[in-house]
Specification:
GO molecular function, one term: metal ion binding
Radius of gyration: 21 Å
Number of domains: 2
Bound molecules: 6-aminopyrimidin-2(1H)-one
CATH superfamily of the largest domain: Metal-dependent hydrolases
EC number: 3.5.4.1
Distance between the termini: 48 Å
Domain Amidohydrolase: 37-396
Pfam families: Amidohydro_3
Protein name: Cytosine deaminase
């Protein structure tokens, strides 16, 4: 039995101690009694691990190297460059770069990743490599795999069969990209078939949905309607929906009511889409985000995600969710003090809700997974973009770092 004392627990001001036994939280409270080992957290902020609910592990680092830069900075060039280069993909290549990406994310306190895996590949190379890693790395990170037809469900020859095959192989989620199909009708039909596949295989849905600046892109409306009718909203996520940041208020307001009814989830990738969107705009330029603040006020579940690390779509990124959060709350105007105080939800609990993880959170009976930040409360953590000092999984440290001093003592300040 292990006891962590002097913890400041995010969202639980009554508790300061955590007791862990047999990989699980045995109790969370105060004065919890004796333990074999006592660890003093010195008042630091403890929260459930970061969740990155949208990442492309099979693409990681593909954008590095001469001639690989996406010159226009657009989604379409990213897809084209990937398509041109993916023919040389091997399982070993995907495995090695995915491991590097996972290392980066885990070292920043992430323990849950949903990764889209391109299945528009007759060999399903990425899916094969990532299915193995999902199993091999499960004590370090929980991986959810999306069968994602990057080059289009219909637009890529044999797309529907490849998506089905990936689900048969064991993908956890079915994906889609309706705004990349060749017409509105093709996009709608792809969504219908994808929802049918989800019901047939009993898997979640996560669609790259309206990742453009077109205020007339309407696949979010279609997806929402389809899953609302099937009562499948909590198992469904609309990723990106950047066009919803460009629509008129009267349309947005109508949709808000329908999102409330369907309970569909949203993922916003603030850094990626600030980079990709608005490329066709003169000034003023769109920020490229969906209506994050308004969706949250509507009671919808919204999570932030990294999306890319140095691939054909986005040249930056390092798996640090605090960086994503910092950018996201600025771009979304989610910066009232009350919003800042709960902003960590966007990279923790809200992501766990997207992934439908039930065994999540610092409470009795759950797996003993948590992180410790170099801050004493949520506001300080967000304002300082606090470092992750430790990540604990199943009661054991994945890593632990020295406490960094926030303030350097400079001689002249003492005078
Ligand atoms: N942002 C994106 C990254 C990768 N693929 C996409 O379709 N979009």
């Amino acid at each position: 039995m292990k006891k962590f004392i002097n913890a400041t627990i995010y969202g639980d001001s009554d508790s300061t101690e955590i007791l862990v036994e047999d990989y699980k939280f045995k109790a969370v409270g105060t004065n919890l009694g004796d333990a074999d080992e006592v660890i003093d957290l010195e008042g630091k902020l403890v929260l459930p691990p970061y969740v990155d609910p949208h990442l492309h592990l099979d693409y990681i680092f593909s954008g590095l190297g001469e001639g690989n830069a996406n010159v226009s900075g657009t989604l379409f060039e990213g897809i084209q460059r990937w398509s041109d280069n993916k023919k040389d993909l091997t399982e070993d290549k995907v495995r090695k770069s995915a491991i590097k990406g996972i290392q980066k994310e885990v070292s920043h306190g992430v323990q849950y990743i949903r990764t889209h895996v391109d299945v528009t590949d007759p060999n399903l190379t990425g899916m094969k490599a990532l299915l193995k890693l999902r199993e091999e790395l499960k004590d370090i990170v929980t991986l959810q795999l999306v069968a994602f037809p990057q080059e289009g469900f219909f637009r890529y020859k044999g797309g529907p069969e490849l998506v089905r095959k990936a689900l048969e192989m064991g993908a956890d989620v079915v994906g889609g990209i309706p705004h990349f199909e060749i017409s509105y009708e093709h996009g709608v039909e792809s969504l219908k078939q994808i929802v049918d596949l989800a019901l047939e295989f009993d898997v979640m849905i996560d669609i790259h949905c309206d990742e453009n600046d077109d205020p007339n892109s309407r696949f979010l409306e279609v997806l929402n309607a389809l899953v609302m009718e099937k009562n499948y909203g909590t198992k469904t996520t609309a990723s990106h929906t950047t066009s919803f940041g460009a629509v008129e208020a009267s349309y947005a307001n109508k949709m808000m009511g329908l999102f409330k009814e369907s309970k569909i989830n949203f993922i916003s990738c603030p850094t990626e889409n600030a980079h990709l969107q608005g490329r066709g705009d003169a000034y003023p330029k769109r920020r490229g985000l969906t209506r994050v603040k308004e969706l949250l006020e509507n009671g919808s579940n919204v999570a932030f995600a990294q999306d890319s690390i140095a691939d054909y779509w986005y040249p930056l990124g390092n798996g640090n969710m605090m960086n994503i959060l910092d950018n996201g709350i600025h771009l979304a105007h989610y910066t009232h003090i009350d919003e800042i105080n709960k902003a960590l939800d966007l990279i923790t609990t809200n992501g766990a809700n997207v992934l439908n993880i039930e065994d999540y959170g610092i409470k009795e009976g759950n797996s003993a997974n948590f992180i410790v930040l170099d801050a004493h409360d949520a506001y300080e953590a967000v304002r300082e973009r606090a470092e992750v000092l430790a990540s604990v999984r199943n009661g054991e440290y994945l890593f632990k770092r020295e406490v960094r001093k926030n303030e350097i003592e400079v001689d002249f300040l003492k005078k």
